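Summary for the funding panel

The consortium committed to producing paired sequence-structure records for every protein in the target list. Below we show the first two records in order, beginning with the earlier of the two.
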Amino acid sequence: MKKNTRGFSIIIALWIVLIITLIAFYILEYIIPFSRNVKGIENATKSYYLALSWQENALFFIRENGIWVWDTKVFSWTSSSAYNIISTGTTLPLEWFWTSDFDKDWSKISPSQSVQVFLPTGINWANVNIYFRVPYFSDNLEMSSTWDIVNWQILGKTDVLNADDGQRFSSWDICNSSLTWAWICPWTVLNSLKTWFLLDNTSSDIPNFYNNNCNSNNYDCILKLSIISDLIAERWIEEGKKIPYLEYRIDFDDQAIPTNIIQIEIWGLSYGFRKDFTLYYPLDSLIDAYDFTVFQ
């Protein structure tokens, strides 16, 4: 009598299918999460390069529009990326965009780092307030009594207005490290400095120079502030120590002024992954070697 083995073969086949299915599920448990991670890395990388592509667009916009980019904010976007150019403000530096190591609302001015501001038309110089402060290395740190610490100039295309001796910013114009600009720190109105001279050594004043050289076209003139003396501390144990830099703030009332450094915000988005960058584009500036010529 011949034995029937079909039933036994079906059982073996079912076991083989079951084992293969279990192995497949086991492998998929590793493959699917890994593939998701790879896809996530791909989208994160894509968002990074989408953001950087707008960096090129923003820099090209600045290059094509030149100094006129400072007239406004520019915001451009698509569904996946965007850039924002922040280039003007009524105070320098802009709030929260500082260079000081101690306070978010102040920036540095040092012997190797001057301040240069491109001037638009329509400035009311009686309302331009300039603040200087000693950084908060310690409480109540003061500058030693020294005249002519910070020089100022207004540079036009054909002439320059220079501060006269004794009419620059002195230690009396510089607050100690504990004073804040908005409440206690006294300011200096630039227009209150009374004596100036032109390149031909004749006298002038800021309103006349500005109206004759700067008030017909935006950004024809530059206000430049430069430290021309050693910064020496005066206060108990710190007395005689050198200070590496001062902090400054300039308030132009309600007049929009181009910032010394253009801020570019860019972002890229790819399937839920977003990459943000904040870039800083410095302005073209005069070399500080020019100061050597002025003081000869």
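The next record, for a separate protein in the list, is shown here:
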Amino acid sequence: MSRTPDATSARTPLRISLGIVLLLATLGSFGAGFGTMTDCTNTFDCTSTGCSPCATANGWLTGGWIVQGVLLLAGAALALLATRGVRRPAVRRAAIALGPLAVALFVLTSAVAAASY
């Protein structure tokens, strides 16, 4: 069974986007959270929930991590649609948008968290 160019055209950007989202949802979120929260707790000499500035930063980081997880689930749904051949052009466009959206979300939530204390 050979794959047509149309069938693989949705898979490549989807794989790249899923890789980006997975990387940001795991290692990226851990690294940003560890760095930001270490700086906050050292600056204010408190825990992540013990003082207002660090609790706010922690909330932004947690919210960003949750939305990255939602994007990962959306990517998994797109992967399922791509394997079934459902609306390939729409799946391809959504897959292409998924990676940059994850990066923008990661940058935004990390920057807001760091600026919140």
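Regarding this second record: The chain has a mean pLDDT of 87. The radius of gyration is 18 Å.
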